Recover the amino acids of this structure.
């Protein structure tokens, strides 16, 4: 009976996650705000006609960085600055999201073709590369690699695959091919015309059969498309790269011909489905954070939906590292975490009447190394993030009778609507990684790891993989000729 209840909780949570993603997308179009709080590292792919002359003394890198700077610091719609100048030591935020990652190709012609992609860290961190032997199977490598990527890339999304060339060429192709339109439905409808198209369809079907599903909770849709680009390579090599795109895929394509700025028109609201998510007060449990106790946390079930109301703290990588250093020195923390909930988030700055800008969850796995410290020494009761937790964190959650909750990645603007007020309470110098206190009202989350250490990111995909396999066996039997 308990298993059936948990399964029903999880199915409802999966449906709820998709509804939140679709509603969030429409809200962002209406409010002209970022679809995700992680507004990404800016990738620029530029095809420059060899007949073009640039009337400037600045480099292409400097020109593109200036464009990024103006875009990210726009007072009407500021975007989150995520770039840090020193990747090895002090990791100081550049404050304007520069530099961009610029790739330039010289081609015949008199125009400049530009593709710009804002690539979030959650999906970028899941980039994979391998140097296979020529006789090794790409399909086998993909099907072994995707489950190990976890859910930090916010599925459902796309897989970009580059094969051939050299190591760096394969990675570049994997990212570039993600700029192509999603056309898997059309491809399946007309049927493959090349071996590469047949491989795309095969990988699409088999990756979805893994049962990973939306947000890694299980389900039929893990990828919406699989893109593959190839290049000749050395006879002894088969370099392969795979980069996922999250549900919040963001890129723009335009051409400059010297006649003035390119005109970019937003899509019509009629392109969005008529989806309007709202809290389900009948099916979800409302939780008062001001009265939260360890006994109540222990009563939460895996896959159960909660609506959080009250005050919660925020914190990400840099804040956790600083807390660890302070505790190691015997210093008093600037914030009391005892019996509190922490939200792993780096929000966008507020504009107009917002309490805070888009504020979706960041990948919780990066905080695994700090979890035992935060539960044991700091005294947290629960954590909110996205994607799965590793064995180390799950064991700590079980030992301390705590819980891990997930908010929907790709629903950042919708989540921010549940935040009534926000203020920085510690480490202001860390920018978006400072510790905030949010006052929330009916913030939607799902129990991902309960006090007994049961994880829906393990049970959900396993259950759906079994369902999909059983359905496939039934279909295969039904197609057998009868004597």
């Amino acid at each position: 009976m308990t298993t059936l209840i948990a399964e029903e909780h999880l199915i409802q949570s999966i449906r709820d996650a998709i509804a939140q993603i679709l509603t969030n997308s429409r809200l962002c179009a209406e409010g002209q705000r970022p679809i995700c709080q992680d507004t990404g590292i800016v990738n620029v792919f530029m095809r420059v006609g060899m007949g073009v002359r640039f009337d400037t003394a600045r480099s292409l890198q400097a020109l593109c960085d200036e464009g990024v700077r103006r875009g990210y610091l726009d007072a009407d719609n500021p975007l989150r600055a995520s770039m840090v100048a020193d990747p090895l030591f002090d990791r100081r935020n550049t404050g304007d999201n520069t530099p961009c990652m610029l790739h330039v190709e010289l081609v015949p012609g008199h125009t400049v073709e530009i593709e710009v992609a804002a690539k979030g860290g959650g999906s970028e961190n899941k980039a994979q590369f391998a140097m296979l032997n020529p006789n090794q199977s790409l399909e086998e490598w993909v099907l072994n690699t995707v489950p190990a990527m976890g859910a930090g890339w916010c599925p459902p999304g796309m897989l970009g695959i580059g094969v051939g060339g050299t190591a760096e060429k394969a990675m570049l192709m994997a990212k570039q091919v993600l700029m192509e339109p999603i056309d898997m439905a059309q491809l399946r409808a007309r049927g493959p015309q090349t071996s590469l198209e047949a491989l795309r369809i095969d990988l699409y079907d088999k990756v979805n059969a893994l049962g990973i599903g939306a947000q890694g909770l299980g389900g039929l849709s893990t990828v919406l498309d699989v893109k593959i680009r190839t290049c000749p390579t050395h006879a002894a090599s088969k370099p392969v790269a795979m980069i996922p795109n999250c549900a919040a895929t963001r890129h723009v394509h335009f051409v400059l011909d010297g006649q003035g700025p390119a005109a970019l028109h937003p899509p019509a609201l009629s392109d969005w489905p008529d989806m309007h998510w709202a809290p389900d007060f009948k099916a979800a449990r409302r939780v008062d954070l001001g009265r939260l106790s360890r006994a109540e946390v222990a009563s939460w079930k895996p896959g159960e939906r909660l609506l959080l109301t009250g005050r919660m703290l925020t914190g990400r990588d840099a804040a956790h590292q600083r807390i660890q250093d302070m505790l190691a020195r015997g210093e008093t923390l600037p914030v009391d975490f005892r019996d509190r909930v922490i939200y792993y988030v780096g929000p966008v700055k507020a504009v107009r009447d917002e309490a805070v800008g888009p504020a979706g969850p960041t990948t919780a796995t990066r905080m695994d190394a700090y979890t035992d410290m935060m539960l044991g020494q700091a005294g947290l009761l629960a954590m909110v993030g996205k994607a799965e937790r590793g064995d180390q964190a799950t064991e700590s959650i079980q030992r301390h009778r705590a819980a891990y909750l997930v908010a929907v990645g790709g629903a950042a603007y919708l989540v921010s609507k549940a935040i009534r007020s926000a203020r920085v309470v510690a480490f202001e110098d860390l920018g978006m990684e400072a510790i905030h206190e949010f006052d929330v009202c009916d913030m939607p989350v799902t129990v991902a790891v309960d006090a007994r250490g049961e994880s829906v990111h393990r049970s959900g995909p396993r259950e759906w993989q079994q369902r999909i396999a059983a359905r496939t066996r039934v279909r295969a039997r039904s197609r057998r000729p009868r004597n």
In short: The chain has three domains: 2-14+284-452, 39-119, 121-247. The chain has a mean pLDDT of 94.
